[in-house]
Amino acid sequence: MWRDLAPVGRSASSGGYFRQPWASAETELRSWFVEQCAARGLTVETDGIGNQVAWWSPETASGPSVLTGSHLDSVLDGGAYDGPLGVVSALAAVDTLRERGFSPARPIGIGVFVEEEGSRFGRACLGSRLATGTTTWEDASELRDRDGVFLADAISASGLDPSRGLVDLDRVGTFVELHVEQGRDLVDRDVAVGLASEIWPHGRWRFDFAGQANHAGTTRMEDRHDPMLTYAMTALAANKQARLAGQRATFGRITVEPNGTNAVPSLVTAWLDARASSDDALASLVAEVERQADDRAGRDGTSLVVTPESVSGSVAFDPDLAARLAGLGDWPVIPTQAGHDAGILSDAGIPTAMIFVRNPTGVSHSPDERAETADCLAGVEALADVLAELAGVPA
């Protein structure tokens, strides 16, 4: 399966992946998923926006289902494992359980949620947010990508129809997501597999710095109203405040107008990704960055508007479920600073757990993202054990 996925959406120059939702590479992967499920006799449901769930549900299975899976889209120039590892491992776990002679007493589903990364329309975990009702279609349909394409138009262009409705999560009793670790906790512990205890609160804020366009040569430095200077100081302030507080703050995307080499810009738009150990700490971090940006804008003769675009509160996964599953393999229970569909389903009231597979470098959202085959296979065995534990008990 990994060989099948390897070339899809991969950049020949960087080796990274561009698997944007409702575009060709991601559409190819969703078709691949349907083929893999058909080969296993699994029934696939695809909703109106592209979320998919494949069901292993023998006639003897009943009651609330156990759902696993992840996502197939990527960040821009992303790694191979973030998302697809959870989908491939879920399919492999079903193979493993069948090889063991296991028959589920509860239905087992394998889910693929669209636009988990938020790399095209700026709303992380959009597919699971819509499925759980956290985000409404009226709100989401007005989102635009970098080229100005509306979400509704992108979905329609890919052959989907939102009026068909969304995947029904009411039948899901438990969700378990396997994911490559996006950090070094398991490396430092020298273990291949771990479970998640919580997800740090995190979000994205758009900073619009407005100034006055002018000639780069004839405009004296003291006469400028340069939003690039305001942005530059803000980026440095965010870095300093995050370091002082032991939190995370990143400006990873900017746009500039008019974007000319010989012109003072009129507008700089930058997106802040901020994460913290608590909701209060996150609010405090963003507020301090905004305060310092406002102060600098006053000195530069520029203006600032800050707009929250996607904010997720802290998620504490079901501690009883984590403790129950940790006992299956003596796996450590660790926090994560990365957002996941698991966090959205947990907030929706579905008991949720996450399995992490060791990443030897800790690098993620990059072509250098890795996981060793032996660790991936250990993850498959762990997921199979967890599914057997959760789906082996009759309703």
Number of helices: 12
**Can you tell me the number of structural domains?**
2
Looking at the overall shape, the CATH architecture of the largest domain is: 3-Layer(aba) Sandwich
Q: What's the multimeric state?
A: single chain
**β-sheet strand percentage:** 15-25%
Just give the CATH class of the largest domain. Alpha Beta
Q: Work out the helicity level.
A: 25-40%
**CATH fold call of the largest domain:** Aminopeptidase
> How would you sum up the global shape?
globular
Strand segment tally: 15
Global structural class: alpha/beta
Low-confidence parts: none
Q: Distance N terminus to C terminus? A: 33 Å
Q: How would a textbook summarize the main sheet?
A: 9 strands, mixed
**Mean pLDDT over all positions:** 95
H/E series, N to C? HHEEEHEHHHEHEEEHEEEHEEHEHEH
CATH level-4 homologous superfamily of the largest domain: Zn peptidases
Kindly provide the radius of gyration, computed on alpha-carbon positions and rounded to a whole number of angstroms: 22 Å
Binding site for Zn(2+) 2: 82, 117, 365
Keywords: Hydrolase, Metal-binding, Zinc
InterPro entries: Amidase_Cbmase (IPR010158), Bact_exopeptidase_dim_dom (IPR036264), Peptidase_M20 (IPR002933)
Protein name: Allantoate amidohydrolase
Describe this structure in words.
This protein is α/β, with parallel strands linked by helices. It has 2 domains: 2-200 and 314-391, 3-Layer(aba) Sandwich (Aminopeptidase); 202-312, Alpha-Beta Plaits (2-Layer Sandwich). 35% of the residues lie in helices and 23% in strands. It has helices at residues 2-5, 24-39, 84-99, 126-132, 137-140, 151-157, 185-189, 227-245, 279-300, 319-329, 341-347, 373-391; strands spanning 43-46, 52-56, 65-70, 108-112, 172-180, 193-199, 202-210, 214-215, 248-257, 263-264, 267-275, 303-312, 315-316, 333-336, 352-357. Strands 1, 2, 3, 4, 5, 6, 13, 14 and 15 form a 9-stranded mixed β-sheet that branches. A 4-stranded antiparallel β-sheet has the order 9-11-7-12, covered by helices on one side. It has a two-stranded antiparallel ribbon with strand order 8-10. The longest helix has 22 residues, at 279-300. The relative contact order is 0.17. The model has no long low-confidence stretch (mean pLDDT 95). Keywords: Hydrolase, Metal-binding, Zinc.
